[in-house]
Write a structure and sequence with these properties.
This protein is an alpha/beta fold and 678 residues long. It has 23 helices and 13 strands. Strand 10 (351-357), helix 13 (380-388) and strand 11 (390-401) form a beta-alpha-beta unit. The relative contact order is 0.11. One of its GO terms (biological process) is polyamine biosynthetic process.
Length: 678
């Protein structure tokens, strides 16, 4: 039995060759695919976006919301979308932003000198272009909504979104280059935008679409470029007598594959972990194995077995193909393509030495504004997990170029807190604050050159799993984020007024706007929570996004097919789910076996998501204007994307409190006639 009054399908005014349902699925799949491809591709060519992936996501949300709000205000097809996409691709390829490799110093965790336009030029261009590019597919999706009952249209929209995620995930697995993404985008534009009249179609659709595919094809055949699920990886042989390869990711110098003997001669930090361990390590775990130099060094130091953990399959592949010592071909080496923290939590092995070997990802987890791939590796809980994986007399060590002295002190304090005694701290070079931090299971298991003086005054406390922001010194939102987010919201307000007309058009759907805000906060909490529990790999991330959409689709199907409780009851279930998620600690979930952990995590994370979308489905089905109400909800999601930066101050767990307050506000704004909706 259906639980709402379904709006009667309207007569289609469309002359499209494709029926409304397959057209809606195709347009929705294309919309999500294009969003993911833009986030992935722009970050590979503009280094600023390696640290601001949320910037493109927010622009996409704005464009999708505007696309829905534009429905009914014009009968013209959104020919502007392929034109804007072609311009964006051309500009990014013509003016990429990379790190100046000739600059003195070493980059690991920050940027030095950039080559290309400054951030204040590139970021606004990318934001506006992403919004306009996504606005077209969203408008095509929105035009299908009036032709179907509310929840049926939403159902097909979700099926299309899942299809888009599935296609992009499959291409990531195959390491497909950008030409594949561009070709898919071109085909979708050609299929979805009707060729009437012919002249604008060829000039504004076919030509820009083919230009996008052509430009990305040219980029894809660039010598020495590989596309991993995380980066655009480039490499070249350096002009030395010995075989040395320089490896960069997203235009940032990242690693060098060189003989172990040469590396040990050049930089002393690579030998110090073995010198500081009291007993010669035989079984070694290396997190951040990369192209294999650290693995080759461990073998040269007498290791009888090396477990090499590397999150990026392409970096591991390059190590196997290019490294002159061929460490990955050694039978003593076992490779694990996974997240370092996840490996520590899931393995039962014990090691003589655990080494964090420059594990700096230089990129963020998609869908999380401030979480980097390695963020959960440097928390106090992570170092404790490493301690638990050491044999009696074993040692833990990490080294890198930390850039700031307080970072060295913070990490040393984290190790001290986890191990219960002072570690060895060797500042190898003050240039870039190159340092090695080593601690034995006991003080007797380490041999320090000198006692560490302790952290300087003002050193921040160790980063916890709830706020894994190692590089954030103060408990605040940096000014650059506040200014940027303020400008985004201002531009969004103006854009909504220009595209959609007076704000009063959306006033009846203020509660749906807040539902969008709350949903994005819940999605962020899910992404970051599953990253902690199962790893920050692209596979986990894709599964979480797909799982969220499946939970939403399940809510829609339940609402369509069964009698569900009134909205006030569902709001109660939603708040109860938030309380449950708040009460269940991550530490308890991490202590569970992996299968049981998965069941518990899915239940805790997806219960409030399911309840929230039953609320949305019931309210959306009763709305008078499908496209305006849906557009208001999507714009709310964009605001939620801005609000997730609150985690920098309050932590990810407290986002549940913010979401709860947002949902209470949505309930307060619910039109009274809908409160008892069944």
């Amino acid at each position: 039995m259906t639980t709402q009054v379904q709006a009667a399908p309207q007569e289609s005014s469309s002359e499209h060759w494709l029926a409304v349902r397959p057209r809606l699925i195709l347009a929705s799949a294309f919309m999500l695919f294009l969003e993911l491809a833009l986030i992935r591709w722009t970050g590979s060519n503009i280094v600023h976006l390696s640290y601001f992936t949320n910037f493109v996501l927010l622009g996409s949300f704005l464009g999708i919301g505007l696309g829905f709000l534009r429905v009914g205000r014009t009968k013209r097809q959104p020919y502007y979308s392929p034109v804007v996409l072609a311009v964006l691709v051309s500009v990014v390829l013509a003016f990429p932003v990379t790190v100046n490799r000739d600059t003195e110093g070493v980059l690991y965790w920050t940027s030095l000198s950039m080559e290309g336009p400054p951030a204040w030029v590139t970021l606004p261009i990318v934001f506006v272009a992403a919004a306009l590019a996504l606005m077209g597919p969203a408008e095509l999706v929105g035009r299908c909504f009036p032709e179907l009952p509310r929840l049926e249209a939403y159902r097909y929209d979700l099926i299309g979104s899942l299809t888009g995620i599935g296609v992009f995930t499959g291409l990531s697995f195959l390491s497909a280059p950008p030409v594949v993404w561009g070709t898919i985008a071109a085909v979708c534009f050609l299929l979805l935008l009707t060729p009437k009249p012919w002249v604008p179609y060829w000039g504004l659709v076919a030509l820009p679409a083919m230009l996008v595919a052509g430009l990305l094809a040219a980029e894809s055949v660039t010598a020495g470029a590989l596309w991993s699920p995380y980066y655009k990886v480039t490499y070249k042989r350096m002009p030395y007598e010995m075989p040395v390869y320089d490896i960069s990711v997203n235009g940032i110098p990242h690693q060098q594959a060189m003989p172990a003997e040469t590396r040990l001669q050049i930089e002393r930090q690579y030998a110090l972990p073995y010198e500081r361990a009291a007993a010669p390590p035989r079984e070694v775990l290396i997190v951040g194995a990369g192209s294999g130099t650290d693995v080759a060094i461990a073998l040269s130091k007498g290791a009888t077995s090396v477990d090499a953990v590397e999150i990026d399959p392409k970096l591991r592949q390059l190590g196997g193909e290019l490294h002159p010592d061929k460490p990955y071909s050694d039978p003593r080496v076992t490779t694990h393509i996974t997240d370092g923290r996840a490996f520590l939590e899931q393995t039962d092995r014990k090691f003589d030495l655990i080494l964090f070997a420059l594990p700096d990802s230089l990129t963020l987890v998609p869908g999380a504004s401030s979480l980097r791939l390695e963020s959960y590796l440097f928390t106090e809980e992570a170092i404790k997990a490493a301690r638990e994986r050491l044999k009696p007399g074993g040692a833990f060590s990490m080294y890198n170029y930390y850039r700031e002295s307080w970072l060295v002190d913070r990490l040393a304090s984290t190790v001290q807190s986890a191990f219960g005694h002072k570690p060895c701290v060797d500042v190898v070079s003050t240039a870039g604050h190159q340092a090695v931090i080593t601690s034995g299971v006991t003080p007797q298991a380490q041999r320090c050159a000198a006692e560490w003086a302790g952290a300087a005054a003002g050193t921040p406390a160790p980063a916890p799993d709830d706020r894994p922001f190692l590089y954030l010194k103060d408990r605040t939102i940096p000014a650059i984020y506040l200014i940027t987010l303020g400008l985004i919201l201002l531009v969004s307000l103006l854009a909504v007024r220009v595209v959609a007309g007076p704000y009063r058009r959306m006033r009846p759907y203020a509660d749906l706007f807040l539902l969008g805000v709350g949903f994005l906060l819940l999605e962020t909490k899910s992404v970051t929570g599953f990253a902690l529990l199962f790893g920050t790999t692209w596979v986990v991330n894709a599964v979480v996004f797909a799982g969220v959409l499946v939970a939403v689709l399940a809510a829609v199907e339940v609402t369509r097919r069964f009698r569900t409780p009134p909205l006030k009851v569902m709001y109660g279930v939603l708040l109860a789910g938030l309380v449950l998620a708040w009460l269940v600690p991550n530490a308890w979930l991490l202590s569970l076996p992996t299968p049981l952990r998965a069941v518990a995590a899915v239940t805790v994370a997806f219960l409030p998501i399911f309840a929230a979308n039953v609320v949305f489905a019931k309210r959306f089905a009763d709305s008078a204007d499908a496209t305006t109400s849906f557009g208001a909800n999507l714009l709310g999601a964009m605001v939620g994307g801005c609000m997730e930066y609150l985690a920098l101050v309050i932590g990810y767990q407290s986002l549940l409190i913010v979401a709860g307050l947002i949902y209470l506000g949505a309930f307060a704004l619910l039109p009274r006639k809908n409160a008892a909706l069944v």
